[in-house]
Specification:
heterotrimer, A alpha/beta, B mainly alpha, C mainly alpha, A: alpha/beta, D-Maltodextrin-Binding Protein, domain 2, 2 domains, 3-stranded parallel beta sheet, 12 strands, elongated, C: mainly alpha
Chain lengths: 280, 219, 222
């Protein structure tokens, strides 16, 4: 009798522990139950794109949708918010995840956790045609303290600039990218800095022959963005990564992002582990 | 989340710079609102129906639409038509014009309050328009108008954070920029709120005192 | 302009959000106005003091700052409101403070003889206020409440800064998608004007309805 009980107990322990390693995270369970995930999205084409009827698409949301589908979450409810508001939104669990161009940066890793990178790209400037101030790097902006640059508050570009010697007085912030371009057109600022593809898309739409694109900017790392999660969602992040890897393996990932101008190989060598200290 | 004095002291210099801009914006915008408001009030007394009606609808359009959207238009759109102002100027212009629609009503009520007899007396003394206003009407109209005008000054002061939307680095924006870069929200926002309270509450008390003082004048 | 009109579903969504925000905030503000306004003339000193603290706090600080505080700072203490709720609370509390002064002024404007008459009829304070004082105070309050309502509508535009998907926010979205700036802003400016004008008309109708058969001096501009 004792042997039977011992055997049953050890069997249950074995079976039980095996079960937990295959069990879904609570977050994923909740999302599957409600049928959708709330995703914070910034408004920066082509990372994200909003159609006339309000449908949110674009490289990052489409990837997120595909990944969530693999995980069994049918729908994606997008909440358009500004980059500066994404981290607080994740911390407050107002959204389940955030995506669309939130670069993986060490200081952000202290507040949130990332998935593997999904969208990597170079940086760019928009300048008056002919690049009168000959700006090719952030150091060039720092060298001339009369110059003013515009970018978004809390964006990677702001940090890049400050790290490379641009004085805080030289930086102006826009609320949405078109405002920044307007400021450039009106001569309020001398240079507009944003992600490579974002700047390119904006200049294409603006169609102003007096503006010019400078890409890539040397001296800054390739900006890799990933999906971001609340710090406690480590398990969910793991599930997301697994599904993302599947997506990449089948080539569907490339099929989704390349029409937007992104390159799938750019993400190949990158990992959030290298970009976030302590392997968070 | 607990209060960190370290962060509070760290953000203070930026906030101080912002305060100066806030105060400057308030003063200039108020002056504009007073002057423009008076002009509108006087113009609205025009004999021309066209003037009165068009002024009415213009001021209503300005009064019924959000300051924020007006700011965006003056800052981002006007330059496309050749009118480029610096951010601070845009902010002050919009605030001043927007609130002139309110102050003009105060001026109008105050002017209406002056008994008709005063106007007639001025005419019988052969005063021209300028003399009438300067020597008879305004000195009697203005004292009761001071409390509401003072209140609008305080209101404009509290509307200055809106200028942050067009890159004017006043107090609120200074705090917001710090928050966005350092991911610290509690200390900057609280300090901003405290500062507004420190200015508004004594001002409200002052305004109440002004009201008591000017109410004693019998017209 | 065509591209902007193509986004009309988003504009309609934004307008609906703005209207919902306006109505719900107005209700909250109205309730607060009466609670705080009547508390200000309460017999009990403590109640009066609490009311004054509320008044000075919410009237003395900027609505935008209050909104940011509720939306960004409170979560750090574990109090989470979604954007729309945060906006309603901030706008409602802010305008409730201004409204409380209107209520107080309106009630104080009712002649002393009304209080005396109710006392002579042995009315309890509740009955006195409910059936005699407040009904007479309301017509005086309506025009100024109307002005505050317009202020409330304009304040909802500020809510776009805490990511509420209101009309102003939608204008930004359209700007990013089309790279146009004048057209989106012009369109929402006109929409705001139309909503405000409708509100003004409604308040006017309410004012006339409430002053039917009364010889009331209407305080306020219009």
């Amino acid at each position: 009798m004792k042997k039977l009980v011992l055997f049953l107990i050890s069997f249950m322990i074995l079976f039980g522990s095996a079960k937990t390693s295959f069990a879904e995270s609570d977050t994923l369970k909740k999302l599957k139950k409600q049928g959708y995930a709330t995703v914070a999205v910034a408004n920066e084409p082509p990372y994200s794109d909003i159609k006339t009827d309000g449908y949110v698409t674009g490289a990052a949301p489409d990837v997120a949708r595909a990944v969530l589908n693999i995980l069994g979450v049918a729908e994606l409810k997008a909440e358009v918010i500004m980059y500066g508001a994404m981290i607080p939104a994740l911390q407050a669990r107002r959204v389940d995840m955030a995506t669309s161009g939130l670069y993986i940066k060490p200081d952000r890793c202290e507040s949130i956790i990332y998935s593997e990178p999904d969208l990597c790209g170079a940086e760019a400037f928009a300048v008056p045609a002919g690049n009168p101030n000959n700006l090719l790097t952030y150091e060039d902006i720092a060298a001339n303290t009369d110059l003013k640059m515009v970018t978004c508050a809390g964006c990677a570009e702001e940090k890049y600039a400050l790290e490379r010697g641009v004085s805080p007085d030289q930086i102006v912030y826009f609320d949405t990218p078109p405002s920044g371009i307007k400021m450039l057109q009106q001569g309020r600022v001398d240079v507009f800095a944003l992600s490579g593809l974002g700047t390119q898309d904006l200049l294409n739409k603006t169609n102003d022959p007096n503006l010019e694109l400078v890409m890539p900017i040397t001296g800054v790392p390739i900006g890799c963005a990933g999906a971001a999660f609340n710090m406690d969602d480590i398990e969910f992040r793991g599930e997301y990564n697994m599904a993302l890897a599947k997506l990449k393996a089948t080539g569907e990932f490339a099929a989704i992002i390349e029409p937007y101008g992104f390159s799938a190989e750019a993400t190949a060598g990158e990992s959030y582990l290298t970009r976030c200290p302590d392997g968070k | 989340m607990y209060w960190s004095w370290e962060v509070a002291f760290d953000v203070l210099p930026q906030l101080a710079k912002g305060v100066i801009v806030t105060v400057q914006a308030t003063i200039v915008a108020s002056l504009l609102a007073y002057v423009l408001g008076l002009a509108i009030a006087i113009l609205k007394m025009s004999k021309s129906k066209l003037t009165r009606i068009s002024l009415y609808w213009i001021t209503e359009f300005v009064r019924r639409t959000p300051i924020l959207v007006q700011l965006y238009i003056v800052f981002y759109v006007l330059p496309d038509y050749g009118i480029l102002f610096e951010a601070f100027t845009c902010g002050v212009l919009v605030l001043g014009i927007h609130f002139s629609t309110y102050t003009s009503e105060v001026f109008r009520a105050g002017i209406d309050n002056v008994p008709k007899g005063q106007w007639e007396a001025a005419r019988s003394l052969n005063y021209n328009a300028y003399q009438t206003w300067k020597n008879i009407i305004l000195p009697q109209a203005i004292p009761p108008m001071i409390p509401p005008l003072a209140n609008y000054l305080i209101t404009m002061f509290k509307e200055t954070p809106l200028l942050a939307a067009i890159t004017v680095v006043e107090l609120f924006r200074a705090a917001d920029q710090y928050s966005n870069s350092h991911y610290k929200y509690l200390e900057p926002m609280t300090l901003v709120g405290v500062f507004f309270l420190i200015v508004s509450i004594p001002s409200a008390i002052l305004a109440m005192k002004l009201e008591k003082r000017f109410r004693q004048r019998k017209v | 302009m065509k591209e902007v009109i193509a986004f009309y579903p988003i504009l309609i969504d934004g307008t609906i959000t703005t209207i919902i925000l306006t109505i719900l905030s107005a209700i909250l503000a109205l309730v607060i106005s009466f609670v705080v306004g009547l508390s200000r003339i309460s017999k009990f000193r403590l109640v009066r003091i609490l009311a004054i603290i509320y008044l000075e706090f919410f009237r003395g600080s900027s609505a935008l700052v209050q909104m940011f505080f509720i939306y960004f700072v409170l979560p750090m203490w574990g109090i989470y409101f979604d954007a729309l709720t945060a906006g309603i609370i901030a706008i409602g509390c802010n305008l409730g403070a201004y409204g409380s002064e209107v209520v107080r002024g309106g009630v104080l404007a009712v002649g002393k003889e009304q209080h005396e008459a109710s006392l002579a009829l042995n009315y309890s304070p509740y009955k006195r206020y409910r059936y005699v004082i407040i009904p007479q105070a309301i017509p005086v309050m309506i025009p100024t409440f109307g002005n505050l309502l317009i202020e409330l509508l304009k304040l909802t535009a500020v809510a776009s800064l805490i990511t509420i998907s209101d009309l102003t926010f939608m204008a930004h979205i359209i700007r990013v998608q089309t790279a146009l700036t004048l057209e989106p802003f012009l369109v929402i400016l006109v929409i705001y004007f139309i909503i405000a004008s409708i509100l003004v008309k409604i308040v006017d109708l309410i004012a006339t309805k409430f002053s039917k058969g009364r010889n009331i001096m209407i305080a306020g501009e219009n």
